[in-house]
Amino acid sequence: PNPPRVVVLTTYDLDEYVYDALRAGASGFLLKHALPEELLLGVRAAADGGALISPTVTKRLLSAFTQPPPRPSPPPTALGELTAREREVFDLLVRGRTNTQIARTLSVAETTVKTHVSHALAKLGLRDRVHAVLFAYEYGLAAPIDRGRQRPYQG
Asked: How many secondary structure helices (H) and strands (E) does the chain include?
């Protein structure tokens, strides 16, 4: 059985809603003022496994897609306060490694890793691992993984 196809029909012409809907798997994004023929095209496209996005939204998406990506902000000076080992642990942590995996990779005890994680998060003013990942993406310290080419972790 195929999963249901979703076409979002909304009055909100906001980029963030478009991106969120598409990331969630929507097959279409149409605005409430669309003509009946356009709504029908959107439903038919989704039913056939295709997609249809409102022409005004498509124009903005194409414009955003063809623009060079924004340069990440320079990392805060607090990053320089990490010791070399804390930085190694931080880099592995933001790439999704568990404490056990980091310990194996660095040939240290798991309790040592926990200590380094705790110190790194405190020095950077981060609450938890999730915020560490967000921090790393925001400052260009990590990049999204291409799932099509990702190899399983070998640690």
From this structure: 7, 3
pLDDT digits (tens, 9 = 90+) for 16-42: 888 888 888 888 889 999 999 999 998
Which candidate, 107, 55, 61, 57, places its Cα nearest to that of 85? 107
* Residue type present at position 43: V
Q: How far apart are CA 122 and CA 76, in angstroms?
A: 14
Q: Which domain holds residue 94?
A: 77-138
User: Taking a C-beta distance cutoff of 8 angstroms, is the pair 60, 15 a contact?
Assistant: yes
User: What residue type is 25 in one-letter code?
Assistant: G
In a domain, 71, yes or no: no
Name beta bridge partners: 9.
Answer: 30
Q: Would you tell me how many other CB atoms lie within 10 Å of the CB of residue 121?
A: 19
Phi-psi region of 7 (alpha: psi -120 to 50; beta: other; left: phi over 0): beta
Total domain count, the chain: 2
In a domain, 98, yes or no: yes
Per-residue pLDDT tens for 82-115?
999 999 999 999 888 899 999 999 999 999 999 9
**Same structural domain, 82 and 123:** yes
Q: How far is CA 79 from CA 70, 76, 95, 114, in A?
A: 21, 6, 17, 18
